[in-house]
Specification:
InterPro entries: BphY/WalK/GraS-like, HAMP_dom, HATPase_C_sf, HATPase_dom, His_kinase_dom, HisK_dim/P_dom, HisK_dim/P_sf, PAS. It is a multi-pass membrane protein. With 598 residues, the protein is α+β, with helices and mostly antiparallel strands. It contains 14 helices and 12 strands. The strands form 3 sheets. The chain has a 5-stranded antiparallel beta sheet, sandwiched between helices. A 5-stranded mixed beta sheet has the order 7-9-10-12-11. A two-stranded antiparallel ribbon has the order 6-8. Strand 1 and strand 2 form a beta hairpin. Helix 1 runs antiparallel to helix 2, helix 1 packs antiparallel against helix 4 and helix 2 runs antiparallel to helix 3.
Length: 598
């Protein structure tokens, strides 16, 4: 039974009880009214008639035979009484009264006839009035007794009606109390359980379900609420898992950033500091998190430098104009650029955007700084390298303009101009190759089976004038059965000439150079060995980077720093490898390999 039916049944029961009490009270009142009306009509009316009859008899008692008016009044009252007989024995008394009244009338008629006849007989005293009085009293006594009896019965019925009404009223009060105690409780108790469950739910406790003890409306609410709790538990589980995943992902991103990251709240308390920043500050995260930034800046000079632009009147300009932070990191110079970003959030309650904190980052720009320095050095070097041959060409050109110059001297000067021109062409070609690689154009290869012995012969003959100029000896070592390699002849020759030119440049006068060509597994390996100053192990990879230059003991900085970088690109693109083996003071050996033709 649902709650609505329970409440309806309760109110119907109360209504039925009230109707019953009202109906019974109405019935009892009607009965009492009917009884009183019967008493008034039957008994009390007869008593009143008896009184009238007694008053008539009083007149007759003085002149019983002469007073015909009294007899007429008595007869009229007796006639009314005859029509109002209600009690047992009353009819007999009325009959006796009528008989005596008839006798009294006869005596009066005889007396009247005697007077009319002129007889002088006196009207004596008759006994009928006295007998009539006795019978009248008897009739009145019957009605008086009946009146008393009926009054007592009416009183008893009234008392019984009062008792019954009291019983009905008591039952009504008890039923009302039962309804007052049960119906509100039946409505409030489930609401209390629902309120308690809602309180637990607001505290993120979704396990406090409502017992389903009925099938009424509250039972339906309980089932719906329990289903909602189940869905909330599932949603919380899935949401918690997603939040944990997202938090871990965000933490991983923050922790793996190569930038120092600091998060401040609106009151400049430290909320987050990633490992990079902690390492730069030299302070663990435990000494940073939750502390005011104003306190930490007093303990750390770098932190003070990070917060200094925030206090400037024009913060954006101060941050933009802030110098790079120079930090010694792992024994090397590192440069960091400061960046500040305000955090804002939209407050739905106030419908306004509010400031909630700041993110301060330190970005490592050391590579860009070094690249900028390298490019500056490169421009200076290229300018120097271009200036030297141009100056030589300009000077030799002026010498050629002298007509007095002998022919053999003109020939020698022309050779110098040709060498310097080739040097310029080589430098320009390197710059063009680098520009093509930076533009993503790649390297166009013409790979074909190639005998590297021929490449070696061509390259060595090309640099022979340079060898002769420095009085260097060239030693060639080639395998007898040398397989063909898959190579681009032009670019491979360029690489070998570049390696030989570097070896000549760094070799002392009169030293020996060695070129070896041999099989190394599935590759053909070419090696160029010099007797120069050598290269430290920590610079073996650096020399293959663009614009890299290593000064020697004499301070010579070499060429543009692009040759070895381009050479490695050429060899790697052909499927080979280019590397160096060297030690300081022991010379250097450059190796490159190319795959054998299958």
């Amino acid at each position: 039974m649902n709650l609505k039916t329970k409440i309806t049944v309760g109110f119907l029961a109360m209504l039925l009880l009230l109707l019953s009490i009202g109906g019974y009270a109405y019935y009892s009142l009607r009965q009492l009214d009917r009884s009183s009306r019967d008493v008034l009509k039957a008994n009390l009316y007869s008593v009143n008639l008896g009184l009238r009859m007694l008053r008539s008899l009083d007149q007759l008692a003085r002149q019983p035979l002469a007073d015909t008016a009294g007899t007429a009044a008595f007869t009229a009252a007796l006639r009314e009484e005859a029509r109002n007989v209600t009690e047992p024995g009353e009819q007999q008394v009325v009959d006796d009264l009528q008989n005596l009244t008839q006798q009294l009338r006869q005596h009066q008629q005889q007396a009247q006839r005697a007077v009319a006849a002129g007889q002088t007989s006196p009207l004596g005293i008759s006994a009928e009035p006295y007998r009539l009085g006795g019978l009248t009293y008897q009739m009145m006594a019957l009605n008086t007794d009946a009146l008393n009896r009926k009054t007592e019965a009416a009183n008893q019925r009234a008392d019984q009606a009062n008792r019954n009404l009291l019983i009905f009223a008591t039952l009504a009060v008890l039923l009302a109390l039962a309804l007052v105690g049960s119906v509100p409780e039946a409505a409030v108790q489930p609401l209390r359980r629902l309120t308690a469950a809602l309180d637990h739910a607001t505290e993120r406790n979704f396990s406090a379900s409502i017992p389903q003890e009925s099938h009424d409306e509250f039972g339906q609410v309980a089932r719906a609420f329990n289903r909602m709790l189940g869905q909330l538990r599932e949603y919380r589980t899935s949401t918690a898992a997603e939040l944990i995943t997202e938090r871990n992902r965000a933490a991983s991103i923050v922790n793996t950033l190569d930038e120092g990251l600091l998060l401040l709240d609106e009151s400049r308390h430290i909320l987050l500091a990633n490992p990079v920043l902690c390492e730069l500050l030299g302070m663990p995260a435990e000494k940073l998190l939750g502390r005011p930034a104003a306190t930490v800046r007093l303990e750390n000079d770098l932190f003070q430098a990070m917060l200094k632009p925030l206090d400037a009147p024009n913060r954006e300009n101060a941050v933009a104009e802030a110098p790079l932070l120079h930090i010694a990191q792992r024994g090397e110079e590192a440069f960091y650029r400061l960046a500040v970003q305000d955090l804002v959030s939209f407050n739905e309650a106030t419908e306004k955007t509010e400031f909630v904190g700041q993110i301060i980052t330190l970005r490592n720009v050391s590579d860009f700084k070094k690249l900028d320095q390298v490019k500056s050095n490169f421009l200076a070097t290229v300018s120097h390298e271009l200036k030297t041959p141009l100056s030589s060409i300009n000077l030799n050109t002026k010498l050629l303009q002298d007509e007095r110059l002998p022919a053999d001297e003109r020939q020698r000067i022309t050779g110098y101009i040709r060498q310097e021109t080739q040097r310029l062409q080589r430098m320009v070609a390197e710059l063009l190759d680098v520009s093509r690689l930076d533009a993503g154009a790649g390297i166009q290869l013409d790979v074909q089976p190639t005998n590297l012995a021929d490449v070696v012969n061509f390259a060595t003959s090309t640099v022979q004038p340079q060898l002769d100029d420095k009085q260097l000896r060239l030693e060639l070592h080639r395998s007898v059965q040398l397989p063909e390699a898959r190579a681009d002849v032009e670019k491979t020759t360029w690489v070998l000439i570049n390696l030989l030119a570097n070896a000549i440049r760094y070799s002392p006068v009169g030293a020996a150079l060695a070129v070896r060509v041999a099989v190394a597994g599935a590759f053909v390996q070419v090696s160029v060995q010099d007797r120069g100053p050598g290269i430290a192990a920590e610079h073996h990879d650096k020399i293959f980077q663009r614009f890299a230059q290593l000064p020697d003991k004499t301070g010579y900085r070499g060429g543009s720093g692009l040759g070895l970088s381009i050479a490695r690109e050429f060899i790697t693109t052909q499927g080979g490898r280019l590397w160096v083996e060297s030690e300081l003071g022991s010379g250097s050996t450059f190796h490159f390999t190319l795959p054998v033709v299958a």
